[in-house]
Amino acid sequence: MPGHPLPPPEILARLRAIARALPETYEESAWVGLRWRVRTHTFAHVFAIAGGKPQVYATAAGTDGPAVAMTFRSRIAELDRTHFTEPPFFRPLWPADMAAIFLDETVDWDDVAGLLEGSYRVQAPRKLVARLEAARR
């Protein structure tokens, strides 16, 4: 979305540090904000909500902003549509295994790291997940 603001640098720095610790990940610009991928699969997408834009996320989040949020993938979200529906979470309209969290001053960054790693595990090939598990032992 041309001209749409990026999330604050301090939030991006924290997310980058978490994502870079995971095997074979990379960052790229998304249609709004930034996303982190493993191979061709997005496992995290961070964006700002401002002035009711992007509308699809502002509507799902129930706010016109200003706010910063991150989407992630979760098998729990896919199995239980009522999970991740209370603040600081919200559910984007698609896909079924996606949820989002507001990244505000109250967010627990250890929780965010866990969500990112869990999302990576959902999206990454088994070989890379095995490499991550071996590195964690």
Keywords:
alpha+beta; Aspartate Aminotransferase, domain 1; 6-stranded antiparallel beta sheet; 6 strands; YjbR-like_sf; MmcQ/YjbR family DNA-binding protein
Short description:
It is built from five helices and six strands. With 137 residues, the chain is an alpha+beta fold.
Task: Describe this entry's structure for a reader.
- There is one protein chain.
- The protein is of the alpha+beta class and 137 residues long.
- The chain has helices at residues 9-20, 55-61, 75-79, 109-123, 126-136; strands spanning 25-29, 34-38, 41-49, 67-73, 89-90, 98-102.
- The protein has five helices and six strands; from the N terminus they run H-E-E-E-H-E-H-E-E-H-H.
- The model has no long low-confidence stretch (mean pLDDT 95).
Write the layout of secondary structure elements.
Elements: H1 9-20, E1 25-29, E2 34-38, E3 41-49, H2 55-61, E4 67-73, H3 75-79, E5 89-90, E6 98-102, H4 109-123, H5 126-136
Antiparallel strand pairs: 1-2, 2-3, 3-4, 4-6, 5-6
In round numbers, the mean pLDDT is 95
Helical residues, percent: 25-40%
Please state the structural category: alpha+beta
Distance between the termini: 41 Å
